[in-house]
Design the sequence.
């Protein structure tokens, strides 16, 4: 904070006005963002962003995390923000550096993650005139941010309070509608002051008590209109709703004021009290709860299970972005009497337009606002109908295969598990057995990209302010996804908690065996699956990571159990590319034909 104390600025001469005000504005911004709750800043190298870099590095309350690759940097910020449930600042230089943040910004918008991009830029007169590394950064993220500002270059004529209140307002908007903010920061040269600071004490004086204080410049308070106070008004509607045969579906539960797991547990309790079946996605934080119908995705192949489920009259859904297509199709086809969706993000999250009542609040607030719920006996036999699927799975998951490894991983994982897109997300949503110990499960299912997954997992592992911080982090992802973010393996050696990267190497995108893409001739291989024949052993060596290549389920268990204890380990599970499609097709066929009863 020395840059902000008037005495700290009362030094040499008047030569460096731009440099001083660049530095001063950057310091003001980072201090205000700190007061607004930011603790982590991620930075990539670049000269134009020096004012911001210096201010961040000088701030005693901020933790700085570096990465050379801005695409990974954005995802690392996403992981830190989701892990710590706090806003994270991203600092980049100008040009394509900013554009490289695009995928992470898109994901943050869809998942409601509070990122704050501070992109350095040139003043407007140096745009479109051949100046180096100058692109039009205004509103570069288009409709993927919730707030965008293009700040003028720092000037003594512009009040410091303008800067502070701009941030206060932006963060207030972010608290109402979580998502990414972009603030484009234009700097004139010389960029940073060296020893030639200008006396700016007169400039700072109007900030008065803010300079010595610790609270933001302006306090943005809002009433209760968006909280649970609206729920009691629904008492009569709820009573009528709750008397019917209901089904509870849980999608992603994350980022509320209450701990994710705690509020997901309240949903489990609600389903118990109502006697309604619970179908909770792997991102729900209660997927592995013994009360959840864990194998619903596969059980939906079974006519008897689906028929029983179809006796439900009303649907109560918490959170969106369901991974199971079979469940989504079931929801779309069912002639519901009523459908309520409870989710704090004000997004539609209703791909088939079934929702009749949309409650924009965290599950915990909704449940707290409900009237006393009498215990109801379950209306369904789904537990026993699901048992057949579970038994079949136990038989089929004993081999060293993608299915077998994911089933095993669901039992062995500890701390937090980050699941890559493509097959890992689908497999982890359908396999596993009930657990007694909690497991925090996250995935980037906003845009479901296969990019930035390693960086996101690293960000999750280094988020400091959650109970998960002293626990291991595991990421499971496909080989193409791993190649996509290979650069981010360079981050991992800084991990302070055990971190395990499980790469399921089926030599390309095996999901395409199961997707409706042209498969004639070599079309599937050449244009979709794209086999590469690569192994990750040398990548592990290059980035200084422990490495295992198990060839049996027992060897996988041993390697993973060891990896959970210490350091950073890459476990490469090499399997034939066609195996997972064959296994899933066989499972589905058996369930559909009822052969498992013979
Ligand atoms: C950034 C991005 N590019 C392309 C896709 C389309 N896509 C979905 S899955 C997939 C293949 C993934 O392969 P891999 O990571 O090896 O996983 P597997 O299919 O073998 O499980 C691709 C290219 C995507 N989701 N995101």
Sequence:
């Amino acid at each position: 904070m020395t840059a902000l104390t008037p005495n700290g600025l009362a030094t040499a001469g008047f030569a460096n006005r731009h440099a001083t005000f660049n530095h001063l504005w950057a310091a003001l911004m980072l201090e205000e963002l700190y007061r607004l709750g930011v603790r982590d800043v991620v930075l990539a190298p670049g000269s134009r962003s020096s004012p911001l870099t210096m201010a961040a590095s000088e701030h005693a309350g901020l933790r700085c995390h570096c990465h050379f690759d801005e695409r990974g940097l954005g995802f690392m910020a996403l992981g830190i923000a989701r892990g710590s449930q706090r806003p994270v600042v991203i600092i980049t230089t100008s040009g394509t550096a900013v554009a490289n943040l695009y995928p992470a910004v898109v994901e943050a918008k869809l998942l409601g993650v509070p990122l704050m991009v501070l992109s350095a830029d040139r003043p407007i007169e140096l745009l479109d005139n051949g100046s180096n590394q100058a692109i039009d950064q205004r509103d570069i993220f288009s409709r993927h941010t919730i707030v965008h500002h293009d700040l003028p270059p720092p000037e003594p004529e512009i009040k410091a309070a303008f800067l502070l209140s701009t941030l206060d307002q932006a963060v207030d908007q972010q608290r109402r509608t979580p998502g990414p903010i972009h603030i484009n920061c234009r700097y004139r040269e010389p960029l940073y002051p060296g020893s030639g600071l200008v006396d700016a004490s007169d400039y700072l004086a109007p900030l008065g008590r803010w300079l010595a204080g610790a609270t933001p410049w302006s306090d943005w308070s809002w009433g209760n209109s968006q909280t649970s106070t609206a729920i009691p008004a629904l008492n009569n509607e709820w009573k009528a709703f709750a008397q019917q045969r209901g089904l509870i579906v849980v999608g992603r539960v994350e980022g509320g004021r209450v701990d994710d797991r705690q509020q997901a547990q309240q949903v489990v309790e609600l389903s118990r009290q109502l006697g309604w079946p619970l179908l909770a996605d792997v991102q729900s934080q209660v997927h592995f709860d013994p009360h959840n119908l864990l194998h619903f995705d596969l059980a939906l192949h079974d006519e008897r299970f689906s028929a029983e489920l179809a006796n439900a009259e009303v649907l109560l859904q918490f959170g969106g972005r369901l991974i199971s297509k079979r469940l989504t199709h079931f929801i779309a086809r069912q002639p519901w009497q009523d459908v309520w969706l409870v989710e704090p993000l004000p997004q539609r999250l209703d791909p088939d337009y079934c929702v009749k009542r949309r409650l924009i609040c965290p599950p915990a607030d909704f449940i707290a606002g409900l009237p006393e719920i009498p215990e109801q006996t379950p209306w369904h036999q789904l537990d026993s109908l699901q048992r057949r699927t579970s038994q079949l799975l136990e038989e089929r998951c004993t081999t060293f295969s993608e299915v077998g490894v994911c089933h095993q991983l669901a039992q062995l994982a500890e701390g937090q598990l980050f699941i890559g897109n493509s097959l890992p997300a689908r497999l982890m949503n359908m396999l596993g057995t009930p657990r007694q110990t909690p497991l925090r499960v996250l995935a980037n299912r906003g845009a479901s990209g296969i990019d930035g997954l390693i960086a996101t997992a690293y960000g999750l592992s280094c988020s400091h302010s959650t109970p998960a911080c002293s626990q291991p982090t595991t990421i499971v992802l496909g080989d193409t996804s791993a190649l996509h973010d290979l650069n981010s393996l360079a981050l991992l050696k800084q991990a302070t908690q055990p971190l395990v990267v499980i790469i399921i190497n089926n030599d390309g995108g095996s999901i395409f065996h199961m997707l409706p893409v042209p498969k004639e001739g070599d079309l599937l291989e050449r244009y979709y699956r794209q086999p590469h024949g690569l192994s990750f052993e040398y990548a592990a060596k290059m980035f200084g990571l422990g490495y295992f290549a198990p060839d049996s389920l027992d060897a996988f268990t041993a390697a993973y159990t060891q990896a959970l204890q210490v350091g950073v380990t890459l476990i490469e599970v090499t399997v034939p590319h066609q195996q997972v499609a064959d296994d899933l097709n066989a499972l589905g066929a058996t369930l559909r034909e009822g052969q498992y009863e013979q």
Q: What stands out?
A: The two ends are 74 Å apart (CA to CA). Residues 421-423, 448-451, 478-481, 506, 508-511 surround thiamine diphosphate (CB under 6 Å). The chain has a mean pLDDT of 92.
